[in-house]
Amino acid sequence: xxxxxxxxxxxxxxxxxxxxxxxxxxxxxxxxxxxxxxxxxxxxxxxxxxxxxxxxxxxxxxxxxxxxxxxxxxxxxxxxxxxxxxxxxxxxxxxxxxxxxxxxxxxxxxxxxxxxxxxxxxxxxxxxxxxxxxxxxxxxxxxxxxxxxxxxxxxxxxxxxxxxxxxxxxxxxxxxxxxxxxxxxxxxxxxxxxxxxxxxxxxxxxxxxxxxxxxxxxxxxxxxxxxxxxxxxxxxxxxxxxxxxxxxxxxxx
Amino acid sequence: xxxxxxxxxxxxxxxxxxxxxxxxxxxxxxxxxxxxxxxxxxxxxxxxxxxxxxxxxxxxxxxxxxxxxxxxxxxxxxxxxxxxxxxxxxxxxxxxxxxxxxxxxxxxxxxxxxxxxxxxxxxxxxxxxxxxxxxxxxxxxxxxxxxxxxxxxxxxxxxxxxxxxxxxxxxx
Lengths: 253, 172
Prior knowledge:
Chain A is of the alpha/beta class. Helices cover 37% and strands 20% of the residues of chain A. Chain A folds into three domains: 14-75; 80-171, no CATH class; 178-230, no CATH class. By secondary structure, chain B is mainly alpha-helical.
């Protein structure tokens, strides 16, 4: 992400500058960008409500030829910070907490977090919500939804990023019959038992980067796989080291 | 190495400081090479591209306005690989990779992990490595690859799941 400096070529309109930000990242003082009047020509740029924001406004006006195409709105949280929150929320979608969507809302200057109403009073969900509120305060806004839309891609309204994740069966709010509940408990137990009885026969052997082999006593979890990938940097040959340094030497000469 | 240290090194490299460049090279060569290799799946091409990247980095390092120099380097690696693959064949990136994979028998694949990674698509391999080996944030990866944040995250999780299946002896 680059800071915008006044020695760069000016942009015709706010939209041109916005496109530049889309590629190179928003400046620190920007909180968000949205359409002022529904067109892509006139944009409102949210800026932090402090000295940096004030300086940023002047900088933006210097960068745009048609400065009537931009309006400013003072806001609290920077866009980078909201994106960071959005990123921190991603792993929670894999937990059974009733979290169904989240997104950075530029105009509202918060991260919207949507929780399934049917799960709202469950202990795990309540703790999750309380933790979010304690950690992020006004930077997040919790809302509840009855229905669940099974979209997998972003919604392009005034929202920068919206995640919609698949709904787990237990999150539908449908009441269970006792028979179904018993089946749901017994079947996994049975499968689990069979798996434990058989698993030692299907133990794979993992070859390591160093060439050794590691006999796995149990199946690898996703977390373990992630750790293996992280530790799996490949080694470049010494010949390349020499070629690079030789290349640099030529440049210096 | 944090952002400040990296920026400091880059400003020294801008002034032609060879020692600073050497330090930069030794700190970054492994993740850069890993990512390039994972995309092109060819040792020779990956080494050549890594060499090109670092020589370019020395001749034109990022200026002080670049806020995240680490992400900038991997953006540069991404662009270099894409340019090279496009020049090689005027077809889609994944198609090029498939063609490269036909030659895979000639490459010594060191580990089961690399064999499993080779089954992922080109984009999946890049996202996986940018996250796991370069340690970039999902937002930075989204910017580098031109994909949405959610698409990047889903791709990463899907890749880990696929690798889990393969490393546990299953098939996809």
